[in-house]
Amino acid sequence: MRRSEFERAVSDEFGARGGPVLNDLVLTSLGDRTASEAMEAGLPPKDIWLALCVEMDVAPERRYGAGRLEPKGR
């Protein structure tokens, strides 16, 4: 997952709450960091996304591949 995919996934899943979720929610599984702090520390976006999903109880079917653009037509 690229950072742009991560940002799209957060926006799609949390909407206007995305900013506070990234900046205020402390994720124990990421060393007691917020998602923003984890990103600044260089943790992989996919790991951060999955930690957010667990903490926010995102349905499993919306966790994997979220934020990816639709494939281009050939």
Automatic annotation (TrEMBL):
Tell me, what's a Pfam family for it? DUF3046
Identify the domain of life. Answer: Bacteria
Q: What is this protein called?
A: DUF3046 domain-containing protein
Organism of origin: Microbacterium marmarense
